[in-house]
Design a protein that fits this description.
Layout lengths: L2 E7 L16 E5 L5 H8 L6 E6 L2 E2 L11 E6 L21 E4 L4 H9 L3 E4 L5 H10 L3 E4 L2 H4 L7 E3 L5 H11 L19 E3 L2 H4 L5 H4 L5 E4 L5 E3 L3 H18 L1 H4 L12
Helix pairs in contact: 2-5, 5-8
The protein binds zinc ion.
């Protein structure tokens, strides 16, 4: 007789299921005693999206071995996940919002840096390298690639739903409850280095001649030494940051609760 386990996915985890399978009990045949993580991912839900697993009503970890007749309830992060708080299936919570972005997310990296978040991005980095770097540098991996999220090394990650950088930035703000932690214009958009205010006289010879007389506020990247000044850089960037944060607080998800559910995330 075939051995079976029964799965029910809650809330936005249904984004990852075929439309016909959403919000319904799913039955899976068991071969051997597979880890619950493997079956969840075979169904299409990245383990990094899961915050709580109940098997027959009891909380279990990803390595739980499924038995015949098990009933598995799979829950996403409850509301916005505060990364300062312990979550249920994570070995250790990450205390600082530090991100690593996959190779397709250069524009999102710049937006997160604009808001002051540590957003590492290496164009051309391969999946193996990304998974290792995320683990060793304790960074939250951001990607739209579900195969990448299946790797065991990847414990802290978020699968972006949108393909548009501005919407992606809002997703990240809300998913990790970051709006109150933003510090716009404190990080270099080009290299992710920290910015430090410097005096005009220190960098006068590196400013374009037309700018020298008008600058009142000047900062330099501690890593690549790029200069940022008011007049051209600050007002435009500050406005972008303000707009993003205002939307992050207002919450487009709250305005349109079904926004994510009408889409099937690509892989
Ligand atoms: Zn820099």
């Amino acid at each position: 007789m075939t051995r079976r386990a029964f799965f029910r996915f809650y809330a936005e985890l249904n984004d990852f299921l075929q439309p016909s399978q959403r919000f319904q009990d799913a039955e899976r045949a068991l071969h051997g005693t597979p880890a619950v993580k493997d079956i969840i991912e075979a169904i299409g839900v990245p383990h990094t999206e899961v915050d709580l697993l109940l098997v027959n009503g009891e909380s279990q970890g990803f390595d739980y071995r499924l038995q015949d007749g098990d009933r598995v309830s799979v829950y996403p992060a409850f509301e916005a996940l505060d990364i300062g708080a312990a979550t249920r299936v994570r070995p250790v919570p990450l205390r600082e919002p530090r991100f690593l972005l996959d190779v397709h997310l250069g524009r999102l990296a710049r937006l997160l840096r604009l808001l002051g978040f540590d957003a590492a991005y290496a164009p051309g980095a391969e999946d193996d390298r990304l998974a290792v770097s995320a683990a060793s540098e304790r960074r939250i991996l951001l990607t739209r690639d579900r195969q990448l999220l299946k790797r065991r090394l990847v414990t802290h990650a978020y699968c972006l739903r949108s393909q548009a950088p501005l919407e992606q930035a809002l997703e990240v703000l809300q998913r990790f409850d970051l709006t109150s932690r933003a510090a716009p214009l404190t990080r270099c958009l080009r290299c992710n280095g920290r910015l430090q205010a410097i005096g005009l006289e220190e960098a006068c010879d590196r400013l374009p001649p037309g700018v020298r007389t008008r600058v009142t506020r000047l900062a330099e990247c501690l890593d690549c030494r790029r200069l940022y000044w008011d007049g051209t850089h600050y007002p435009r960037l500050q406005r972008m940051a303000d707009d993003l944060l205002a939307q992050g607080v207002a919450g487009p998800a709250a305005d349109a609760p079904d926004r994510h559910r009408t889409r099937t995330p690509g892989s």
